[in-house]
Design brief:
Helix 1 crosses helix 13, helix 3 packs across helix 13 and helix 11 packs across helix 13. The strands form five sheets. The protein has a six-stranded mixed beta sheet with strand order 1-2-6-3-7-17, sandwiched between helices. Helices cover 32% and strands 22% of the residues. The chain has two domains: 303 residues, Aminopeptidase, CATH 3.40.630.10; 124 residues, Alpha-Beta Plaits (2-Layer Sandwich). The protein is an alpha+beta fold and 484 residues long.
């Protein structure tokens, strides 16, 4: 592909306009369409599209249909479909082989030698958690100050609307008969492990093939500085069940002689970390990297760390977040305090989530954690591990043409040069994209900022960040449309 612009794009009437004029029209369109875009985003947030098995799948279907309707309204895609694929057989649970959640796939073929870009986001969201922890209802979008609050407002329904709005701005600037090829893939189960993702790629490989892939599911450095994510940790999640008794027994009659499952679970989980909070699992590795300056004060401000609570781990703060492994207990199935009785619990289950440093295969990390748990099970407690999901880490080659184009678009939209960042979170399916499309350049961009609180109560989207993210992508599409 050439780095030079060739034939000037045409307006709908056939009049030739310079690239500068087109980009000025893109900027105006993004600005004028912003209220409509935010209203459409708010309508998506109102759909509680949690893909987890304990939630109503009808909401995920409704979300897919709403997204498909928005895409069809653009009027430039040759096909817009809601599709599913089979869950991977190695998913490790009884769902293997069943169909995954609905995704939206739209395609438009490139013309006249122009490239094709694949735009990815996901329409499923995290569970809301305890409604009492929210300042407003999770699925009732509310604007307070310069932020839109609601589950999915940032992660990742804003990513969907960044794609829709940027394509709409391209249409308004150059007309619907443009040459850029676009594939739009809006997944429906990213927050539930992307369990059918690899099969979806294989089933729809020709439709998804692209020269560049934009993944709108990450964060920016702050509300005034854009970022391109160049490193992601992998992840391993699973359910651990600890059993010590065949049935519950009276705690007064047998306590002190019989180990209950809760005690065994607490003792076992405590072995996963050192006294300073660093992971203490043999075989989990770190990635050597140089990180930007990031203070403990900034960490406290962005995370809400209480004044008397110290950070955990060793090394620079960003190396702990970007390049070191973690093991976190994200859920416990046990008697609640309100329903507690004087009994020895026979069984306790926990959900464990581990972030894997770039450079270590997820399967290797899982094997290390499993070996550690089995070696440290107290009093011979029986362990069962199920519902295993694994996702690979990712490192970006930043030398390609698409990376240069994306960074320039960000700089022009934000008025500030972007920074290369790592992300402590995981986007496991990126390894599947790399495997299926090894020649494509992958651009992990973001609509979030450090105060978005994705996955947490009071998740929000900074509307200024959102506008600049939309403009960045719209400028990128306009430039790719002019590229031979």
């Amino acid at each position: 592909m050439s780095d030079t612009t060739q034939t000037p794009p045409q307006t709908p009437t056939g009049t030739s306009h310079s690239q500068a004029e087109i980009e000025a029209a893109v900027r105006e369109s993004v600005e004028l369409d912003l209220p409509r875009t935010i209203a459409e985003l708010s309508a998506l947030v109102r759909i509680p599209s949690v893909a987890w098995s304990a939630f109503d799948p009808a909401n995920v279907q409704a979300s897919a249909e709403a997204v498909a309707a928005l895409v069809r309204e653009l009027g430039v895609f040759e096909t817009v479909e809601i599709k599913r694929a089979a869950i991977e057989a190695e998913a490790g649970d009884s769902d293997a082989g069943e169909l995954g959640q609905p995704a939206v796939l739209a395609t438009r073929a490139a013309r006249n030698g122009r490239p094709t870009v694949l735009l990815y986001a996901h329409h499923d969201v995290q569970p809301p958690g305890d409604d009492a922890d929210w300042e407003s209802e999770p699925y009732q979008p509310v604007v307070r100050g310069d932020r839109l609050y609601g589950r999915g407002a940032a992660d990742d329904k804003a990513g969907i609307m960044a794609h829709v709005a940027s394509v709409r701005s391209l249409i308004e600037a150059v007309g619907p008969d443009f040459d850029l090829g676009i594939a739009l893939f809006i997944e429906g189960e990213e927050e539930f492990g992307s369990r059918s993702f690899a099969n979806f790629l294989r089933d729809n490989r020709d439709a998804l093939a692209a020269d560049a892939i934009v993944v709108a599911d990450s964060s920016n450095w702050d509300i005034t500085t854009p970022a391109l994510t160049v490193a992601l940790r992998g992840n391993v999640t699973f359910k651990l069940t600890v059993r010590t008794l065949e049935h519950a027994s009276h705690s007064g009659m047998f306590g002190g002689a019989v180990p209950d499952a809760m005690l065994a679970t607490i003792r076992l989980l405590a072995t996963l970390h050192d006294a300073d909070g660093s992971v203490a699992v043999d075989g989990l590795r770190s990635h050597e990297t140089v990180t930007p300056e990031y203070s403990e004060q900034q960490l406290r401000a962005e995370t809400g760390l209480l004044p008397g609570v110290s950070p955990i781990g060793r090394g620079t703060i960003l190396s702990r977040i970007w390049a070191q492994p973690t093991v976190t207990v994200t859920g416990i199935d046990a008697p609640s305090v309100a329903n507690a009785s004087n009994t020895l619990a026979p069984v306790v289950s926990v959900r464990i989530s581990s972030r894997v440093a770039p450079g270590q295969p997820a399967s290797e990390a899982f094997a290390a954690i499993e070996a550690h748990l089995r070696a440290h099970a107290p009093w011979g407690a029986e362990l069962t591990i199920s519902e295993v999901d694994k996702g690979e880490a990712f490192l970006v080659d930043t030398s390609g043409w698409a990376v240069r184009e994306a960074k320039q678009a960000m700089a022009d939209a934000w008025g500030v040069e972007p920074v290369d960042t790592g992300i402590g979170g995981s986007i496991p399916f990126i390894s599947d994209l790399v495997r299926e499309f090894p020649e494509a350049e992958i651009l992990v961009t973001g609509v979030e900022d450090p105060d978005s609180r994705a996955h947490s109560p009071n998740e929000s989207l900074h509307l200024g960040v959102f506008k600049r993210a939309v403009l960045s992508e719209a400028l990128l599409l306009a430039r790719l449309n002019a590229r031979e």
